[in-house]
Amino acid sequence: MADMLRVTVAASLQASEVREWQLRLPAGASVADAVLACNIDVQHGRLACGIWGRAVELHERLRDGDRVECCRPLTVDPKLARRQRFASQGARAAGLFAKRRAGSKSGY
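-> structure tokens emitted (108 positions)
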């Protein structure tokens, strides 16, 4: 048991869904071994892998207590999505001073 690693694998395979697995792997196991143990397909470049939020290659060795994260690529640029939401809301309905009292000065 001393030569076994405790690893958590988290994967977002679909929108609004995160699955998590608790694994015990032999010492010297790689990210690819952890992903393979969960039956996740990352070979076609669809998912990117990281350890604790830091992007890594599949051959990277794991340490005890690591969290392997598999993420889907972004479908929309976050800045563009924010601009579109703001445009649909209009300038008066968004921002810090959107809900000001009637008759009050601008900015208060």
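The beta strands are 4-14, 17-26, 48-51, 54-55, 67-71.
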